[in-house]
Amino acid sequence: MEPVMDDHRLAELISLSDRPPGEADAALTELGPARVAEALLREIAARTRLLPGPAEKTTVQFDLGWADQRLRYLLTLGPDTHEVAPGHDPLAPATYQQDLPELLRAVFSPGRHDATRALLVRDSDEPHGLSLDDPWLRQRRLAVLAAHQATQAIEGRFTDLTSLAVRFDADKWGGHWYTPHYQRYFEPLRDRRVKVLEIGVGGYDAPDLGGASLRMWKHYFYRGQVYGLDLYPKHGVDEPRLRTFQGDQGDPAFLTGFAAEHGPFDIVVDDGSHFSEHVLTSFAALFPSLRPGGLYVVEDTQSSYWPGWGGSTDLNASSTSMGFVKTLLDGLNHQEQIRPADRPASTTERTVTGVHVHHNLVVIEKGVNTEQGTPSWVPRTEDPRTWYPAQ
Ligand SMILES: C[S@@+](CC[C@H](N)C(=O)[O-])C[C@H]1O[C@@H](n2cnc3c(N)ncnc32)[C@H](O)[C@@H]1O
Hints:
Blueprint: H1 7-16, H2 25-31, H3 33-48, E1 58-66, E2 69-78, E3 81-86, E4 94-99, H4 100-108, E5 117-121, H5 135-155, H6 161-168, H7 179-186, E6 195-199, H8 212-220, E7 225-230, E8 242-246, H9 252-262, E9 265-270, H10 276-286, E10 290-299, H11 321-331, H12 347-351, E11 352-358, E12 361-366
Parallel strand pairs: 1-4, 6-7, 6-9, 7-8, 9-10
Antiparallel strand pairs: 1-2, 2-3, 4-5, 10-12, 11-12
Helix pairs in contact: 3-4, 3-5, 6-8, 9-10
This protein binds S-adenosylmethionine (SAM).
S-adenosylmethionine (SAM) binds next to strand 6, helix 8 and strand 7.
């Protein structure tokens, strides 16, 4: 399906959801209200795939106010049905009414937005039976389920990464056990308009396979843009707010150009080849393009200990990914080290503010690591006990 708007416009649209009522109208006019409505409806339809709904096809009429117009769309929901089309059905079982800018806020802005919408479930003018076998009551029940699915898609958020991993069959939980760690580190960024880059889309050379974790990030970061980088073309995986690129994580010139064009990023996850050399090359090229407050994650660091993967049985070999991580630990305290004057702190040392090491997973925090060290009068080379009064 052709995208309704490109990445940049979609990112701009999401940013408009932060503007107070009235202030986004000119920009929405420029983007085109019909295109905006369709982009929102497609996002809603994508979210309904993750939610329980009616057992039979049921239509929700969207009736969106814009100036003196009504923009009307039909969202059809059912088992394996999540379709959007422009249209008006006066007999639709359920109707959702809201002004377009308010729907934008409801879909992409944190907080509650239900005060600005009305939900109508079509009722019978005729008397009907009271049992659920009654055709009218049965249809009404389907309408309530469809209306609930649609409102959950608009206003609810997918806050549990483990459930998303299981839903999309991402091995970040089940194959590995990473999602509880991710939840802990990513939670503060969930409501932000983050840009997430993951190296390794999955599915190797099959163009339509893979993308499980990218979908997981997309739905967790409901206002984010997700980029996937893979050695193989993966365009079959692309969808709104999720775009893939072909490139080699072992090629520093490519990575630098990619970061200049698509960065800066808030999160980078390296789940690519897991060769130590590639892990180090990618970090050197991409960490500079991480925003302050951002997180750089390296997965599957077990390969650091395996010679066949460019790792080593020497636990301190600086050429391996875990050997490199150990150098980051000392770099955190660069202000405290006794160093020759011709070995100033490196950019990495000055910008890594935290290193969290878990089983096979490393999370590196970016920020300013130049806070004052211990005062210079505190002895470094003398034993400080010579200063204490004798007991
Ligand atoms: C483990 S899969 C990624 C799984 C995915 N992140 C997920 O969690 O659903 C690894 C992917 O890395 C890709 N890859 C291997 N070597 C690479 C390289 N040098 N540069 C970029 N991607 C690479 C492979 O093609 C494969 O699709």
